[in-house]
Every structure is written in structure tokens, then in C-alpha cells.
């Protein structure tokens, strides 16, 4: 009996250690990588590829190109609202990104944070131009220069009060990155983003990028510079491993893609593309 008890204890210990290692939110980054460690095929990228995908930079210098608008925009009517409210019934969102948001809202609900209100989603260029006239340049961007024009961003409030003070705002700040979202305009980065602190504006970039940005305290502008500098990097997060490669357009229209792994190609909306392989 003693032996059996010891074995059970050992198994429990090993399983716990495994779970701590692989299920924790710790992100491991290795920057000195060269070459994808597997079979690859060559693909030629087009100029259009620079302007579409989840990592496109959209700011006063880089407007949304037509190919940068998500192709799954629809009026938001989820089957299960999971405690999330809408400011009005006209809100439009990318179907895939709203699904990620609802998964995140469910996670927040488990933490007792369940008073989210979606106040804005996708906005067409005309609606953005109108908003810019109303709000002014410190709080809004001209038509075509807002992340809302791409469908990649949404504004999220709390029915409990201002996001800067509400538990919803705190939760987003601490946890959104685990779900592929970033707080796009943080308080300590206004000189880089050119936009005042907006605790309500979240932007989807996807994993592992949101985790890397959180780890380094980078806003998107800084992160894209970093990826461009690194050219290749490896990251692991929640038991998944990723290999990230940056390709400048023009120098390199030929990119390497893995034969037997999932991958995502996204432009940076400046002059390159980033390939993220899930290993
Ligand atoms: Zn916004």
C-alpha cells in the first residue's frame, strides 16, 4: 500500500509540474534563431499582401487599404451574449474577431467580471470622417486612418463606470493579451501612438503577438520595429510554439512557408510581411 501511495504521489507531482510548465501564461522568447526547422515551400508575395492581415499598422501615417478591411464584417447578433451588452443594435464587427472577444468575455465572466458594453466596432470611412469632425484630432482619426475602419478594433466599456476605474478595464489591461487582443493606446505610450490614453479601445493582433507585446511592453509601432530588427524569432506560450519571420517587400518577394505546419501571413501595412508558423 505504501508503494502505491508513493506512486500516486509521484504521478500527481509529475502531472502538476507538466501543467505548470505548459499551461502557465509564461511566454518564452528566443531571438537568436536562423531558418525554419522543417520542410518549406517557396511562395511569391504580392504588394497587396503588405496591406492585409492581423498585424497591419494603422495610424496617422498608414491608412487602411481596401484589402486591409476584414472580409467578414456583419451586424453583431451573437447567440449567447455572455453578459456582454451593446450600446446599440447597429454595431458591426468582424465575425471571427467578435468570436474571439466573446471567448474572452466568457473567461472574464469566470473571474466575476461581467459588465462589458461594446460601444463601437467597424466603422465605414464616412462614419469615421463625421466622428473626426465631432471629436477632434486628440480623440479620433480622419476617415481611413482609424483601426475601426479595418474591423480589427472595437471599443469596450463597462456598465459599472469609466473603463479607467472599472474592473472591466483592469481585467482587459491584465488579460486581453492572452486572447490575442492589445490595449492599443496605453497611458505610457501616447508619444509613440499619437493618441490619448484610451482604456476602451482594443485591437486584435492574434497570438503569440499580443503575448510578445505584453512581455516587452510594446505598442504595435514598437513591436513591428522589433520584429523587423529580429527578422526571425521563436516564442512559446501556453504549450504552443511559434516561429515568426519578417520579410521586407521588394528585396524578398519569395517567402518560405512550411509544408506540414499551420501558418498565418500578415502584412505590416508599411513595407513587409510577417509569417507566423504554429509548430
Ligand atoms: Zn476605438
Automatic annotation (TrEMBL):
It holds the Pfam family VanY. GO terms for molecular function: peptidase activity. Residues 91-206 form the D-alanyl-D-alanine carboxypeptidase-like core domain. This is M15 family metallopeptidase. It comes from Oceanobacillus jordanicus. One of its GO terms (biological process) is proteolysis. InterPro entries: DD-CPase-like, VanY-like_core_dom, VanY/YodJ_core_dom, Zn_M74/Hedgehog-like.
